[in-house]
Amino acid sequence: MDPSQVKIPPLKDLTIDNITENVILINSLCEDQRMKYVLERLVTHLHDFARETRLSSKEWMTGLLFLTEVGQICSDVRQEFILLSDVLGLSLLVDSIDHPKPAGSTDGTVLGPFHTHEAEEMAPGAAMSHDPKGEPLLVVCTLKDTQGRPIPDCKIDIWETDSTGHYDVQYAERDGPDGRCIMRSDKDGVFWFKAIKPVPYPIPHDGPVGRLLKKLHRHPYRPSHMHFMFEKPGYDHLITALYLRNDPYETSDAVFGVKDTLVVDLGKVDAALAKKYDVQEGIHLMTYDFVLVTEEESSRLRDERSKEALDKLGRKVKIVNGLPIPDLD
Ligand SMILES: [Fe+2]
After folding, report:
1. Are 256 and 153 members of one domain?
2. Which of 160, 165, 197, 205 is nearest to 179 (CA)?
3. CA of 205 to the centre of ligand 1 (A)
4. Name one Pfam family in it (predicted).
5. Which strand (E) or helix (H) includes residue 158?
């Protein structure tokens, strides 16, 4: 870029007090308005953070080396940055902001670092886990919209650990995906499959995020859960999970994912269900009625809540294409 074409004041003699406005000024050449806005706020908060904490060079270098290690341990089957975002509570916060849920719809929760794109689509009733040591579990669910109408043909990605609390990708010598499947809801919005009873497990804590937790005197455990992800054009993408009640980590999830509405009580398969689904009587039963919101409902609610959040900060705005515009009416 030719500096003579840039219509900004010369950037010299910058101080603790004027560095922020000047960095924002040079970044304001960005043509993507949303990116420009996010960068402006990011620089403002980062600089305020350094000014407020009186951050030392040594501390900031410790932070940079930590982030370097987080990046270095990442691979195609390990995502330490998602883990870092999770243990800082940022993943849950962003999901709650970006996927607001009206009353009566299913809450979202953290994706976690173990979703993959290699799950196979399976027929209704298939067994998604092949761990012989897992306690057999029948899962029978329905999927509806907020008006109570069944949602057919939705792609549902489901994943869980084996009975030792490890996901398939955590085994170096594995044959292929296990503990994962893709289901489709039928014409009545029903989907069902065979799985194993989820167990609690520690998030990977042999890397920089684990060392951070140790330093903070935090345990790395997640309560027993099974992940679900719903995708259908016209509906807001739902990433969620079901948690087992009375798990020892129900109220201290290392990644803050548990919500009351997502905690379930397991039942037992009775004789009639055993016959209907061709499974053994007495095995564990998990049932849940999921409710998806449409993209339109979600988008409207997202803008309403953006406006409310900025109102609370004393900024009178309306939201247009994700950007706060001064409300002059
Ligand atoms: Fe998980």
Report:
1. yes
2. 160
3. 14
4. Dioxygenase_C
5. strand 155-159
Q: For 101-134, how does the pLDDT look when each residue is reduced to its tens digit (9 = 90+)? A: 998 999 999 998 888 888 999 999 999 999 999 9
Distance 120 CA to ligand 1 centre (A): 18
Using the mean position of ligand 1's atoms as its centre, give its distance from the Cα of residue 314 in Å. 39
Do 311 and 242 belong together in one domain?
no
Instruction: Give the Å distance between the CA of 133 and the centre of ligand 1.
Output: 19
Q: Compute, in angstroms, the gap from residue 183 CA to the centroid of ligand 1.
A: 18
Residue 279 lies in a domain: yes
Ligand 1 center–CA 220 separation, angstroms: 12
Q: Is residue 65 part of a domain?
A: no
Global pTM reads 0.88
Does residue 283 share a domain with residue 305? no
Burial environment of residue 83 by CB neighbours within 10 A (0 to 12, 13 to 18, 19 or more)? buried
